[in-house]
Amino acid sequence: MEYYGKKPNYNMAHRIMFGMAEFYGGGAFVIINTFFTVFLIKALGMPAALAGTIPLVGKIWDAITDPMMGNITDRTVSKFGAKRFYIFVGGIASSVTFLLLWLTIPSRSIWAMYFFYLIMFCLFSTGFTILMVPYNGLLPDMIDDYTMRSKFSTVRMVWSTLGSMVCGLVPSFIIKDNTKPAQYMTCAVLFSILFFITTTVTFIGTWEKKKEPVKTTLRESFPQSISVLKSRSFKLFLGIYLFGQCGMDFVSGMAVYYIDDVLNGYSNGYFIYLMATILVSQLVGMVFWGPIMSKTSKRTTILIGAPTRLIGTLGLLAFSYEGASIVPVLVLTAFIGFGNAATLTSIFAIMADMAEVDELITSIRRPGIVSGMATFARKISSGLSAAGIGFLLAAVGFDENIANAGQRQALSTQKGIAMIYIVVPAILITLLFITAVVFPLTGREFDIIQKEIARRKGEDTSSITEEEKRICEKVTGFSYENLWKAENAKKLVKDA
């Protein structure tokens, strides 16, 4: 097998270099989910319901760019490897567009600000797409082994957590007054530089299999992308991805409001304590859950981690009022972070395995298309969360003028904010657990899928057993006779 980039090496140094781009993937959204709507609402005075629609409307643009980027990645030929090439280009684009999000315009017109930041968000989202779609599709073209992919994914998630820690805590020291726009820009400059450095290291430290590009047109991007959804495993994976990530998006997106308006502890440093607790516990959890995932399955850690998150989340109901001790809040937050480490590690490890399931269905190796749909799902989860936060804040009577003046919200609004922070994530965690229960792919099934692909390619002369046929059908959602057909990559209706 020939490769672009470095010679394949599975030691810890190369796992670290592979994972470094996730500093951006995990960190950028922490800053955006935690501070972007706060920037718009508290620093600029934009109405909460209006500010919350910006990330969601931006996702409409993603419905175009993500499938196209997945297709472009699979079609590209480069001496660096298609995915590595776009990781380098995307690292530059992501750093610049992240900075643009925090510019302050001279106009105080609400609609002028709205359309300006909507355009900036779409530019940022495009930069994210250029980088993360190829990055999400890189691991299947680096490594074939199920367990080794888990090890690389674990290190990637450690970087994600480090990104979350740095991006969750450092802005809290810079943005001491959340009504001052200049403090947000200072933060943006720092992190734009860090994002560029870490993504460049990933480009330098990775490799990619040499293979024939997929011969599709840009016009086929959308039917190709939609066809990925015919896979039973991929549909369930999206459920796991969305429910798992949306739950944490609500935690990070509502944390400032929960600390400031419910506990009245922002000026006392409670926000820093809470973010430090959830991120440190998540980092400890990554180290703890990684070996367990390698020895059991990627599904098992979700089935343990989701209930752990749920216990911590529901426990907050007893301590969500002004004057409550911060200690039990932090203890329960540690449960949330520790449980999230299990679910987060598993989600990205599972993502790498979806390319093989899709290949068995279509006979085409197209990890770019698969990762494009997964990246789109991640952005949808973030957009829905941000929009949901905006609408729910408006529904419980949040007054942006009071917030901009640095005053306290009404008591009924405080109670409503507490319910948003606790009940919505609890519902999403429950849905995550249910979806994980029925998810059909573990290491055993993955090995059977790989073996069947080898048979179809003529690389394995063994005969398939009836049990293996049933597993292939269960994992893909297709009858055995309808697998390995190129038309499955274009037809929008699945064969029975």
Automatic annotation (TrEMBL):
One of its GO terms (molecular function) is symporter activity. GO terms for biological process: carbohydrate transport. The keyword Transmembrane applies. One of its GO terms (cellular component) is plasma membrane. The keyword Transmembrane helix applies. Coiled coil: none annotated. Keywords: Membrane, Transmembrane, Transmembrane helix. The chain crosses the membrane at residues 21-41, 85-105, 111-133, 154-175, 181-205, 236-258, 270-289, 301-321, 327-355, 376-398, 418-441. This is Oligogalacturonide transporter. It comes from Butyrivibrio proteoclasticus.
